[in-house]
Amino acid sequence: MTSTTSSLVATGSFTLDDGRTVDLEVDSAPSPAEFVVRARDETGVVVGLATCNPDGRHAGVAVCVAPGWRRARLGTALLRHAVDEAAQRDIAWLVLHFADGESGLSSWLKESGLVIARRVSNGMVRVAVLVPGALERTEHAA
C-alpha cells in the first residue's frame, strides 16, 4: 500500500458574482508536481475544483463546478488560482479543452489579459494559456 502526503494550503475566501462566498485551497497530492484547487462552501462541501497535471513545463487543466454554483464565475476563480499556482511551480503553459458554447470561460480568457492560443474543432475549443512570467523565467535559466 502506498501512502501519499497531502500539502494543503488555504488561499483565502472568494466572493462570487451572486454574493456567495467560497473558501479556496490548494492541495499538492498525490505528487508534488500535481495540484488541485478546491472551492468549499460555508459548510465545507467541495463545490468546484481545478486539477492540474504537469508534463514538464506544460500542464493539462480540468475545471469542474457543481450545477448549483455555475454562472457565478466560480470556474473563472478556480482557473485564475490554477494559473497563479502554475507560475509558482515553473509551469509555462496550461492547456484546457471546453465546449465551444461555454461563453463564460471564453469571455474570461478574452478579458484576462493572458496570452492565449485558441483553436476550435468539431465544437470543442482547445486553449493554451501562457503562464505570466514563464518566458522571463526561461530566459534567465538559459
Kindly describe this structure:
An eight-stranded mixed β-sheet has the order 1-2-3-4-5-6-8-7, with helices on one face. It has a single domain, classed as Gcn5-related N-acetyltransferase (GNAT) (Aminopeptidase), CATH 3.40.630.30. It is an alpha+beta fold and 142 residues long. 26% of the residues are buried. The N terminus is likely disordered. The longest helix has 15 residues. The chain contains three helices and eight strands.
Total separate domains:
1
User: Judging from the principal axes of the Cα atoms, what is the shape?
Assistant: globular
Instruction: Please identify, by name, the CATH architecture.
Output: 3-Layer(aba) Sandwich
SSE arrangement, N to C: EEEEEHEHEEH
| Parts with pLDDT < 50 across at least 5 consecutive residues | 1-5
Return the average pLDDT rounded to an integer.
84
- The CATH class is Alpha Beta
What percent strand? 35-45%
Number of helices: 3
- Main-sheet strand order equals 1-2-3-4-5-6-8-7
Largest sheet: 8 strands, mixed
CATH superfamily: Gcn5-related N-acetyltransferase (GNAT)
**Rounded Rg:** 15 Å
Secondary structure class reads: alpha+beta
Return the CATH topology: Aminopeptidase
Quaternary organization: single chain
